[in-house]
Amino acid sequence: MIVLKSPKGWTGPKVVDGLQIEGTFRSHQVPLIVDSEHLDNLQELEKWFKSYKPEELFDRNGRLMPELAELAPEGERRMGPIPMRTAGYSFGNFGCPISVIMLLN
User: Fold this and answer.
1) Residue 103, SS3 per DSSP
2) Measured between alpha carbons, how far is 9 from 6 in angstroms, rounded to an integer?
3) Rg of the chain over CA atoms, in angstroms?
4) How many CB atoms are closer than 10 A to CB 62?
5) What sign for the dihedral angle of Cα 42, 45, 51, 54?
6) Whole-model pTM over 0.70
7) Are 46 and 34 in contact, with CB atoms under 8 Å apart?
8) Other CB atoms closer than 10 Å to residue 9's CB: what's the count?
9) Angstrom distance (rounded) from CA 87 to CA 70
10) Is residue 31 classed exposed, middle or buried when 0-12, 13-18 and 19+ CB atoms within 10 A define those classes?
């Protein structure tokens, strides 16, 4: 297992409209507003999205590159089927989302 400790919002813009984003609560929100009053943020948004190098990840049709798709585990090696994903708990069907159940425990 690899554990990476990184600041919140570390891949996004560090500062927007003079406000610190990285490492603050703002990184959990929409960090860049792009509308008629904030058109200057459009370039920053484009720069941020291009930093992920989508041309290396997806083909011309927007599909994940086959060599990357091959890296995903199959069968029992996926996260979904292993009990540790929920610390071994079996929640059953309580009629509410799993996230709500996890908060109640």
Assistant:
1) helix
2) 9
3) 19
4) 8
5) negative
6) no
7) no
8) 19
9) 28
10) buried
The whole-number pLDDT of residue 7 equals 85
The type of residue at 54 is: P
In this structure, are residues 22 and 14 in contact, taking their beta carbons and an 8 Å threshold? yes
Which residue is it, tokens 């992920």?
Answer: 52
**Backbone dihedral angles phi then psi of residue 52, each to the nearest 5 degrees:** -80, -5
To 5 degrees, how large is the angle CA 5–CA 42–CA 61?
80
- Residue that has been written with the tokens 């990840």 in this structure: 57
pLDDT digits (tens, 9 = 90+) for 8-41: 888 888 988 889 999 998 888 888 888 999 888 8
Closest by alpha carbon to 19, among 31, 3, 1, 34? Answer: 31
The predicted-structure confidence for 91-103, as pLDDT tens digits, reads as follows 555 555 555 444 4
Cα 60 to Cα 54: distance, rounded to the nearest angstrom? 10
